Amino acid sequence: MKLFEQDLVIVNMGLPSFGKNLEREGVRVVEMDWHPPASGNHELIDLLDQIMMNNDELPSKIHHANSRAVDRLINAKPVITGIGTAGNVIPEMHERLVLHSGPPVEWNAMCGPMRGAVIGALILEGLANNAEEAADCASRGDVQFAPCHHHQTVGPMAGVVTASMPVWILENSTFGNKAYCTLNEGLGKVLRYGAYSDEVITRLIWMKEVLAPILSEALNLHGPLDVRSIIAQALQMGDEVHNRNRAATSLLIRTLAPLLVRSSADSSNVSDVLAFMDGNDHFFLNISMPACKCALDPCSGIPGSSLINTMSRNGTEFGIRISGLGDQWFTAPAPMVDGLYLPGFTARDAAPDIGDSVITESAGLGGFAMAAAPAIVQFVGGNASQALTFTRQMYDITLAEHPVYKIPGMDFRGTPTGIDLLKIIETGMVPVVNTGIAHRDPGIGMVGAGLVKPPMSCFVKALKGFVKTIQTE
Amino acid sequence: MKLFEQDLVIVNMGLPSFGKNLEREGVRVVEMDWHPPASGNHELIDLLDQIMMNNDELPSKIHHANSRAVDRLINAKPVITGIGTAGNVIPEMHERLVLHSGPPVEWNAMCGPMRGAVIGALILEGLANNAEEAADCASRGDVQFAPCHHHQTVGPMAGVVTASMPVWILENSTFGNKAYCTLNEGLGKVLRYGAYSDEVITRLIWMKEVLAPILSEALNLHGPLDVRSIIAQALQMGDEVHNRNRAATSLLIRTLAPLLVRSSADSSNVSDVLAFMDGNDHFFLNISMPACKCALDPCSGIPGSSLINTMSRNGTEFGIRISGLGDQWFTAPAPMVDGLYLPGFTARDAAPDIGDSVITESAGLGGFAMAAAPAIVQFVGGNASQALTFTRQMYDITLAEHPVYKIPGMDFRGTPTGIDLLKIIETGMVPVVNTGIAHRDPGIGMVGAGLVKPPMSCFVKALKGFVKTIQTE
């Protein structure tokens, strides 16, 4: 009875109303922010129980598989080895193949900006003379479509890659695998946002005829360029290398500038190349993306691992792939983005969430590293303290803290890295993703940027697949 | 009596032991962190009372004078207008004049690194052939000495400027006044840290013969270059533009690179210039310093203003100047720096605090903006949360928050700007300064970097001068 003679402090767990009533009676209450696993969903709790509670072997198998997967991820060392032409360097690329972002999608199901980008690419390749011819060509099956992800490639927004486009060649020097990505065109009216006007095509031609050869020569003079080091530094300089790449782009420019000047190109072209890169703070995005892609690819196909090694969207569907389930996609309709719009545009103009750029979040960067980039809220909305909160939350759904990618404002804590499907289900918390917004119609381009919540249903589908597979393995 | 029947919470102010005793009796106590003004020093309290309590006019005069002074400071718009030769552009500069950092000091009283820098400069100017001749020349009065600050100039560390050196020309476009600073040589064995070996002199010759002319041509192609904008961006990118200038240097390089390529110089020299800037993250320091100098100069000479418009040190003395007291210096012995040392060096190798670079703190940057640059603690010591604390404390001794220089990690709060002598005396809190550390002997160079506390005694001297002047005006 002595207990009740003392001043009691009550810890309340679950429904806050219990605590509130006690507080009204003058009792001191400490509220504990507790939720039942999987938001109390019985079906999901049952699935989790099947693998985590009902035997001893599976939890240990999953634990070891995830350790192996995330170890590969944090030990990746992406380097730029050069620039090539997509048709020459991307595996199984050919003249009538159009790569696109996200999970597989055919012309009929493509969203506006992806159709716009396909139209532009077919005009660029000389397979069509105008939008109408390009749409005909695409709809009657004269070209094939495949996800970038199936060809060791990633592409921002529409992510369209065709044979003549120049691409960055990255290599994960720890494991020897490669990844490819086109060169970034800038913001506004650009192919990846679905624009295909003459201005867009002219820029793409300049990029392959002037920009790529000069950059390629400078890279050859430089030798393999350590991208992990640039990303690590950029995180100390306010970037999260998805929607903020100003520091990383600056570091790339200053590294390459002395070598660009030594190239055989004439100085007016070199000057144009330097001005083009200076004019485009997203230039490094098309390097950070394949850096993450080549870091994540070796994490795929580890039996029993619930690590999410791909998240991606094609503007129609959001899709994920799970390490232990190999190349299988789990998809759900692509969500809308909650964001800030460029002058003259509103949410009504927006296409659904699109692009492979969420590969950065998959690797523990982008939205997961927003605490390193508080200034990004000026681009995607929100305030600086939210940026910190987003990163803090992501530790609850990830497997490791990155040993090289660190956040100065959190006393150099490593970024939350390696998303665990099971932790998402258990906490009910989906990955934080920041992204650009394309116009819903083909031919227009960028209209804004913001934050997007991946649909829980694709994680639920993946869980079902995961539980079934691990029980039958 | 009803009061005492309730649950009481005690607010304890001053000595914590009063509160501790009550807590031991089970009483809830809220401790208030209160200190008597001027740490209870009666002489200082009396001086503060004379101007703040004993009449109505003075407080209002001081208030208005300070508003005017700090308004000038935050409305400054520093731009680079070009590069010139010190002897041609710095007011009253001549071939036998040696400018140095800090308040006035003659050869006999100079510290080791300043003597080393003077020796190097006299060799560079052809006024001596070796260290011995240079020391003779300096000691027998063949050259004159004057503070940079008396010639619209600032110099990091020893701050030595002689006639043939190239200098950045900055203009405060709001008020039309100018400021000058040499070009930054890099870290390690460099003139400003007191080194004067052949390697140092050769680099200085290359800087005037190759670096400066090419930069000058690019600047002419560019037109006036907005330094305020670069500083504002760099604060979003982890710089505080005193001891961390990586972002600002990167932004400068990417801005100038396309124009450097268009200069008439041959490409191998242009490549060397780009590589030199890329190899030196402090390159922008010699721009941020004159940017702050030209922002602060118009704040001088406002009767009744207690704004500190100069802080500076020559390695022998730390000196300050007060707006309302014009060009008068108030000095105290230069303190030692508490810092991190380069391999092979310890605190025993260190010279006292030296350099004009504390002009950045005087303008609300450097140590005052450390919250924007948590990564700087890796260079000067401490941890990331301390960086935040330093900035927070500085709001207590400043007059304004800068409308353009903002700190992302503090939800874009403006940097604490415009140091108020009276607030320093009242709070007993001196400005936070981060700085490099030179070897105490001439000829060696940099040995570390750290944090330094300006000596309270020069602020006390300035207070006495201020009270006397304002009462007799």
Task: Give a brief rundown of this model.
The structure is a homodimer of 473-residue chains. The first copy, chain A, has 473 residues and is α+β, with helices and mostly antiparallel strands. Chain A contains 16 helices and 17 strands.
How would you describe this protein?
The structure is a homodimer of 473-residue chains. Chain A folds into 3 domains: 2-34, no CATH class; 58-73 and 297-472, v583 fold (Alpha-Beta Complex), CATH 3.90.1700; 78-291, Enterococcus faecalis V583 fold (Alpha-Beta Complex), CATH 3.90.1710.10. Helix content of chain A is 38%, strand content 20%. Chain A has 16 helices and 17 strands. The first copy, chain A, has helices spanning 16-24, 42-52, 57-74, 86-89, 112-124, 131-139, 198-222, 227-235, 246-261, 267-278, 285-296, 359-362, 377-380, 384-394, 421-427, 456-472; strands at 9-13, 28-32, 78-85, 97-100, 144-147, 166-172, 178-182, 225-226, 308-314, 317-322, 330-333, 338-341, 354-355, 398-407, 413-419, 433-438, 446-452. In chain A, the strands form 6 sheets. Chain A has a 4-stranded antiparallel sheet with strand order 7-6-3-8. The longest helix of chain A has 25 residues, at 198-222. The first copy, chain A, is globular. The N and C termini of chain A lie far apart (55 Å).
